């Protein structure tokens, strides 16, 4: 029996076609921004008070609270990107996300829950491309007039073996 969380609880209702399109655009634009190296755009996909974490499925299933990357606000994300640009020293590389069609439902509080599979390929400056990570995004999204924003994005990696070159958000 799987110890994965039951994402259908609490009771959910279907989203409208417009809401689905908005959430799908958020997920798509997020991946393209990271793939295109537009890291300064990353925090803008989130509400100011938010949660972002990368952790392995094993870590999540065992109830370990912290992951490999952890931010509790858009301000923390901006600091992380500032450090990435100005302080961190790492071998230049790029990501390419391949995402599946998301499962999306509306929660009773009006937010949306989404779950999206992903595969992430990392390409080094040498041109070598390798599978860097695979797993799923588990999201809680608020639908604002200005557009949807992540309240919570948890990246659940299938493998706990992540290269030490995890400097760019997934």
TrEMBL record:
Classification via Pfam families: Ring_hydroxyl_B
Gene Ontology MF terms: dioxygenase activity
UniProt cross-references to InterPro entries, sorted A to Z: NTF2-like_dom_sf, Rng_hydr_dOase-bsu
Presence of keyword Ubl conjugation: no
Keywords annotated in UniProt: Dioxygenase, Oxidoreductase
Tagged with keyword Transport: no
Family annotation (CDD domains): ring_hydroxylating_dioxygenases_beta (cd00667)
Protein family (similarity comment): Belongs to the bacterial ring-hydroxylating dioxygenase beta subunit family.
Name of this protein: 3-phenylpropionate/cinnamic acid dioxygenase small subunit
């Amino acid at each position: 029996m799987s110890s994965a969380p039951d994402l259908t609880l609490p009771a959910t209702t279907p989203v409208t076609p417009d809401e689905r399109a908005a959430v799908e655009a958020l997920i798509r634009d997020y991946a393209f921004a990271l793939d295109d190296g537009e890291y300064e755009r990353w925090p803008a996909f989130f509400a100011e008070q938010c949660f972002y974490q990368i952790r392995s499925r094993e870590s999540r299933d065992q109830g370990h609270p912290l992951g490999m990357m952890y931010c509790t606000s858009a301000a923390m994300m901006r600091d992380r990107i500032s450090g990435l640009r100005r302080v961190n020293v790492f071998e230049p590389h790029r990501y390419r996300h391949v995402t599946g069609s998301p499962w999306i439902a509306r929660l009773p509080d009006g937010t949306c829950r989404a779950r999206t599979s992903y595969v992430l390929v990392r390409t080094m400056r040498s041109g070598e491309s390798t599978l860097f990570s695979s797993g799923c995004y588990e999201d809680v999204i608020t639908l604002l007039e200005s557009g949807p924003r992540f309240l919570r994005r948890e990246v659940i990696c299938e493998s706990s073996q992540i290269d030490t070159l995890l400097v760019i958000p997934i």
